[in-house]
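Aim 2, interim progress: modelling of the pyridoxal-5'-phosphate-bound target.
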Amino acid sequence: MNNDFSDHLNRKLDEIKEMNLYKNERVLTTPQGSHIETEDGKKVLNFCSNNYIGFANNNDIKKAAVQGVEKWGFGLSSVRFICGTQSVHKQLEKDIASFTGCEDAILYAACFDANGGVFEPLFDENDAIISDELNHASIIDGIRLSKAKRVRYKHMDMEDLEKQLVEAKDSRFRIICTDGVFSMDGDIAPVDKIVELAEKYNALVMVDDSHATGYIGKTGRGSAEHCGVLGRVDIITTTFGKALGGASGGCICARKEIVEMLRQKSRPYLFSNTLAPAVAAASIEALSLLKKSNGNYSSDLKKKSDYFRGTMKGFGFDVPDGDTAIIPVMLYDEHLAVNIAENLYVNGIYVIPFSFPVVPKGKARIRVQISTEHSMEDINRLLEEFKNASQST
Ligand SMILES: Cc1ncc(COP(=O)(O)O)c(C=O)c1O
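Predicted structure of the complex, ligand included:
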């Protein structure tokens, strides 16, 4: 062991703590859900998971996972192209492709890997990737791994996007990339306007729907459905690790040729183990439940989110308008955000404060995430506790 290196790391860790950026992990002693228990024995109402439609502990999905283990075994011990493809993986690819309005799909161990592996095989120095400035870290990393020209446009600013498209007109191909739902602000990308601009400037569109798949759009098919352009987005990446059960796994949905090329060349696909078959089986069940629900999850979640948003505004809180279950309560001051979140936790409400560098300086907030699992009583309790905490902090 190199002691100099340990000393160096300890100094760096101290710096992170001094800057108040050290992330502590609270340990849960229960399954994920709206009511959870933490290691300190505290029972809390949970408003900070991505379990938007309560699938993380859904009985049908758990049953499908158990049956998946029994039928397909625990793991594949292989990448897909050697001996790691079972019919359950092919079925999930077919189901998620049709759910997102695409021709085909390819699975990854995580959406982080999907975003990391999507650009490099498809684009090179002759091409331009035009990316919303607030895109997820995995898109930023994926773009860095490719040799294409990197261009950023101002967050959801269509004028700036058009300017960048004009400037990139000499590139062989142009692709516009955006999160479908941005996780810190809960805003939905104007995918219809992006598709229009892409058609005008002969560009492709890539949308990461990790925070959208399962509940955004009338039937939960994501931001393209919400914006009325289902079937017109070239590449959709998404995760099975949030609304669709929350275990793990990601995918890229696209035209046949795009998926075929990724199977040949995408490094996180070629050089990483197959998604666990039980996760694939459970994800198939999640999609099937969603299809059968006919949009009930989306409408229930919208109703509950709108209620929380509207009542908070009535109380005088600064809460931006929005259509998602991600609701930032803007506090601006970092200490205030931390203190209110701590006060809420003491009173049995689990929410997370975010400050710089996760969000811009001076834009500290508490992010609330609503789930269909929350009852109106749960949401009313959250509202009441927010009011009390802000008065006493
Ligand atoms: C927008 C977005 N893309 C990708 C990911 C990564 O997804 P996964 O957890 O499947 O790696 C996340 C998760 O935080 C995300 O929010």
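Residues 20-49+295-392 form a domain with the Aspartate Aminotransferase, domain 1 fold (CATH 3.90.1150.10). The longest helix spans residues 296-315.
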